[in-house]
Amino acid sequence: MRRNRRVKIVATLGPTSTNEETMRRLFEAGADVFRVNMSHATHDGLRKIHAIVRKLESETSRPIGILVDLQGPKLRVGNIDSGAVRLTEGDILSFVRREAIAGSGHVQLPHPEIFEAAKQGDTLLLDDGKLTLRVVEASDVRIDAEVVTGGMLGSRKGISLPDTELPLGALTDKDRADLEYAMSLGVAWIALSFVQRAEDVAEARKLTGGRIAIMAKIEKPAAVHHLKEIIDLADGIMVARGDLGVEMPVEKVPGLQKRISRGARNAGKPVVIATQMLESMIYTPVPTRAEVSDVATAVFEGADAVMLSAESAVGKYPVEAVATMDRVAKEVERDPLYAAIIHAQRIDAQATGADAISAAARTVAETLNLAAIVCYTASGATSLRAARERPQQPILALTPIPATGRRLALVWGLHCVLTDDPFDLDDMVEKACRIAYQEGFATPGEQVIISAGVPLGTPGATNMLRIAPVDDGTEE
Questions:
Q1: Domains of the chain listed by start with CATH number
Q2: What is the pTM of this model?
Q3: DSSP secondary structure letters along 230-289
């Protein structure tokens, strides 16, 4: 099955969609990667999803990615005796560490890290940003904060500190257990929540040992401040606009989306745009015009993937949401301005032989109007470099490693095919041309350009280009 678009679609699974029939329909509608949110999923649920995805892979002969989104630390206030308390603008609310002294203007905050880091003037956001407080005085055992935006505060509501870099890692004990289980299944990607600094990604990388690709979610102001270092260490980046828009002024989010997206593209790392892309389709079968424009903006920007969250997880129209995103992406990529915008955003090749080869492949393919670029890849590095160039021609990624194909299912413009490594250079050319014909990328008489590393099968050693004509294989 060939997608007639470059951008990929990530569909989140949930109560609405976690069954074989719906997942099959989601895939047929355009989903390339399935996301599992471990804030809600269990290990048994993940195992069942993994089994269904592998069955779909077998039926369609197409690698399908799974993205396991780790929950990360959840900061919440404690229980409130009356269930909720009204906060009025100008009031002072005291947060205390011990439950025993909560009540009558005091709310327990069972997170000593917040008391260690909070300082006068810091902002506290409660209940997904609905309530805003500002720290007046802070100590190791008590924080007094003035209510700026009031309302009802209920028990166990979330709290965040956008001005404060907390001494917390991105991985809890639950995350470590979830990560280990995801790796035991052979999942392609994990998404790392609550990333604040590059060290958070480094900690996850030590645990994974290269067995799974790490996507850093940019949802904290601290992560924006350390963006370049995080991009350098991560395998991919997610623009998590929901939490980012809570912890930062919403008017800053569009600019940050472009900054993060271009930073990831410059580094050759896939970038996913997430949250509220077709939010109204949770309840209605058609999106708003503004939502369509939002998806289109991400596609014009050259994002590797666009993501559905609640729309496909709990919404009434999960398949329609994927189909809508698929249609919007195809229409944008057919737009006469699309190629010019992508070309204007193109970045210079990095100063390595492999990147120079990939840039040359794109130039030759466009100059000679070749049918496709074919990459042999073991680790995925060759295909990632080809995608970084954002060529006009489709990219066919050939790999003998299923895990590589599943990882690349997220990457812009890549059509992945699992195939054995070629025996020699002649077999390499013959196999590339045959698969390009069989997969519908080239017709007899057209030409493709092939990039690979010699010796064959050497990871990261892209050093060869070959232009070859395609036939229909009847001579065999």
A1: 8-72+170-334 (3.20.20.60), 84-160 (2.40.33.10), 353-469 (3.40.1380.20)
A2: 0.94
A3: HHHH-SEEEEEHHHHHHHS-GGGHHHHHHHHHHHHHHTT--EEEESSTTGGGGTSSS--H
